[in-house]
Design brief:
The chain folds into 4 domains: about 190 residues, no CATH class; about 170 residues, no CATH class; about 230 residues, no CATH class; about 80 residues, no CATH class. The radius of gyration is 28 Å and the shape is globular. By secondary structure, it is of the alpha/beta class. Strands 8, 9, 10, 11, 12, 13, 14 and 15 form an 8-stranded mixed β-sheet that branches. The chain has a 5-stranded mixed β-sheet with strand order 1-2-3-5-7. Strands 4-6 form a two-stranded parallel sheet.
Length: about 700
């Protein structure tokens, strides 16, 4: 699909969604763009909030969303440039870019140095945002949470050829990054299903190259390994430009590892930079490819570098530079040890290649961070749970509702942009049929599922954290479920997950229309708290009527009424507790949830009468577990059969020579080969024994072909 076709499809989808949901195409555009930016790691937990006003001397102050990046210490301002046209392709010019950038910058400047409240009503959410920005910027660079400003312009136009450079000067003593997202960039990201690749030439950052020593790791290795000595100034400079994008492989992303470690690093940077190489453990980096100087003495180019260990080291160097804690030239004698793994992979990777690349990076990252006890759950994006959920989502059909003659599918996105990708090569008619069967409002993203299930698990304070932190909490729970009871992840589990999403999203829409809900209110915090409060009040032997929700594909009236009542109460609870402060920060605290949980409320009789005995659901879940166990056994049998008789004959011949297994075990593998040769499907019991034999052989050093 070329850029023209993509733009038409993109606009048609926005208009369709807007009409379906009763919103405007621009709102759909902003929402879709923010989702994408969050998925690729460009922003974290962006808050849509369209603000526009005139300030001093008639200056326009405007933006459409904002966010904070804790890993970067960045304030992110986002502006939309949307033109509701399909037939004509508009152009984003230098003049328009300057306008939008200044509108965003003006708001920050007024927030820090002026008084936003002088230009709007007392109830305008802009006032609280301005207070928040002023507090985070602080009174000096040594007492600030904001180390840089990032500005993002979202546009459905094509970038003018006249736009050559979008770099901007420092603002409020902090570096400024301006990022332009046009329709071309959206097209590229959706079509490749990958984040944009960083390419670094050392000369662009005042460095003539990185000294290195190549390790001899044998001919069979599918990667190259190097030990390097990285100038601290260079490391600080690349982090100043790219920030947390360099930490994509480091799952912890500097979110929770602060405190003593970073204080120690900072002290060495400022007081003893020449000892940094000795005192610091260094960094571990993975890259796709690298390039060398003409004499091969230095590394001068890195493609897609990811710092998988040493994120705090890198961020601390950059922060010391931004805060001017180190004088010019103060890092001239500061060097950082580096272990570099080069995977030598192509840009044009298939989905299988991407999974392999991610798996390799994950394993290296796990090992590199083993001293810090990083759990398997921290690498959850590659967990087989997602594979199971994807399979279940394609299998479990939702009943037809609202006069729709078709059953539909709740599309679980195991990999980002999968829903869009599956439509890209379809004809308009085929695409329409696809969307009928897989509606956009029935796409479930991993992060969304984490929020919903964690709310129902009565952890709303975790849901109110950043998506990354909430996902980490959720992942540990799911990882434990997968390890201890894989068969519990079945069709009943999936339908219950869908129901939780239905409730969450339905409550979102209803709160938005409530007469008590103010513009720019705290819906993101009210929803998980209302759900959690309701679940905490339901008697232990009773449960929601999940089957009814699934059948109707919506909340039943008594449930809706109960949640809306609770949402209103919790809105008032937050207003009282915050006392003019930020509800978003308040909602993240465990003690806030404890206060809310202990509010003396009771469920209405109308709602209580709709609850069902919990044992009814348990019976259905037990039946589904039993069925899932049976399905798993069949799946294993099929996989063993698909490998083929020749494969198992080869394993048999290899192990006959190796002399590491008993005769009986080896002979059994030979019998499986003969069994498959006769076109017979091995039984579950045969497969179970076969797997045990294979595991025994691998434990003794045998590598399966």
């Amino acid at each position: 699909m070329d850029i023209g076709e993509f733009r038409i499809q993109f606009m048609e989808q926005l208009r369709f969604d807007a009409e379906h949901e009763g919103t405007e195409p621009e709102s759909q555009f902003i929402s879709k763009a923010l989702d994408l930016l969050e998925e690729i790691g460009e922003v974290s937990d962006p808050m849509p909030m369209s603000i526009e006003m005139k300030g001093r001397r008639g200056r326009i102050m405007a933006f459409d969303a904002y966010a904070y990046d804790e890993a970067d210490g960045a304030l992110i301002m986002i502006a939309s440039d949307f033109i509701n046209e399909i037939d004509n392709t508009p152009t984003l010019t230098n003049t328009r870019i300057d306008e939008l950038f200044l509108h965003m910058r003006n708001f920050i400047e007024e927030s820090v140095e002026g008084d936003v409240s002088a230009y709007c009503d007392d109830s305008d959410p802009a006032i609280n945002i301005a207070k928040e920005i002023k507090t985070k910027v602080g009174k000096s660079m040594l007492a600030t949470e904001i180390l840089r400003f990032k500005f993002i312009i979202l546009s459905n136009a094509v970038l003018s050829r006249q736009v050559k450079n979008v770099s901007r000067e420092e603002f409020l003593e902090r570096p400024v990054e301006l990022n332009i997202w046009t329709i071309e960039r959206f097209h590229q990201t959706y079509s490749t299903n990958s984040s944009e690749i960083i390419e670094i030439e050392t000369k662009d950052f005042g460095c003539d190259g990185i000294q290195y020593l190549k390790a001899d790791i044998g001919e069979d290795a599918n990667y190259d390994a190097y030990l390097g000595i990285v100038p601290g100034e260079f490391l600080a400079n690349i982090y100043c430009k790219y920030g947390s994008k360099l930490l994509q492989g480091n799952i912890r992303a500097f979110l929770s590892v602060r405190g003593k470690v970073n204080k120690g690093i900072r002290e060495t940077i400022i007081k003893n930079p020449e000892n940094f190489f000795t005192y610091n453990n260094g960094i571990a980096v993975v890259a796709r490819t690298i390039g060398f100087s003409e004499d091969k003495s230095k590394i001068i180019y890195l493609k897609d570098p990811q710092i998988i260990n040493g994120g705090q080291t890198t961020a601390s160097l950059a922060n010391a530079k931004i805060k001017k804690e180190v004088k010019d030239g103060g890092m001239n004698n500061l060097f950082v040890p580096m272990k570099l793994t080069v995977l030598n992979v192509d840009d044009d990777m298939s989905e299988e290649d991407i999974d392999r690349y991610n798996s390799i990076t994950k394993t290296i990252s796990q090992c590199a961070n083993s001293q810090n006890a990083v759990s398997e759950a921290d690498f959850f994006s590659n967990h087989p749970f997602h594979v199971l959920m994807e399979q279940l989502s394609r299998k479990k059909m939702a009943p037809p509702v609202n006069g729709n003659p078709y059953q539909t599918i709740w599309f679980y996105e195991r990999s980002r942009g999968k829903w869009e990708q599956e439509q890209m090569q379809l004809s308009p008619a085929a695409r329409s049929k696809f969307c009928e069967k897989h509606p956009k409002n029935q796409v479930i993203k991993k992060e969304k599922l984490a929020k919903c299930l964690n709310a129902f698990a009565m952890n709303p304070h975790e849901v109110c954290q950043s998506s990354a932190i909430n996902f980490s909490h959720f992942a540990k729970t799911i990882n434990n479920l997968y390890e201890t009871s894989k068969e519990s992840i079945n069709e009943v589990f999936f339908s219950k997950c869908v129901c939780s999403v239905i409730i969450f999203d339905s409550l979102d829409r209803r709160i938005n229309k409530a007469d008590w809900y103010p513009t720019g209110g705290n819906k993101a915090q009210i929803i998980p708290y209302a759900i959690a409060k309701m679940m905490s009040m339901i008697p232990k032997d009773l449960d929601l009527d999940w089957k009814l929700i699934w059948q109707k594909q919506e909340m039943y009236p008594a449930l809706e009424k109960e949640l809306m009542n609770l949402a209103h109460i919790i809105h008032e609870f937050f207003e009282k507790e915050a006392q003019g402060g930020l509800v978003r920060s308040l909602a993240r605290r465990a003690d806030t949830w404890n206060k809310c949980k202990n509010l003396p409320l009771s469920l209405s009789e109308e709602f209580r009468s709709t609850l069902i005995p919990k044992y009814e659901m348990k019976q259905e879940e037990a039946a589904a577990k039993k069925e899932r166990k049976f399905s798993q056994a069949i799946d294993i049998s099929v996989e063993v059969f698909k490998l083929g008789a020749e494969y198992w004959k080869r394993v048999y011949n290899d192990l006959s020579k190796e002399n590491i297994l008993s005769y009986g075990d080896v002979a059994f593998i030979g019998s499986i080969a003969e069994y498959i040769k006769r076109n017979s499907l091995p039984s579950a019991a045969q497969c179970k024994r076969l797997i045990k034999i294979v595991e025994k052989a691998e434990d003794k050093g045998y590598i399966m072909p």
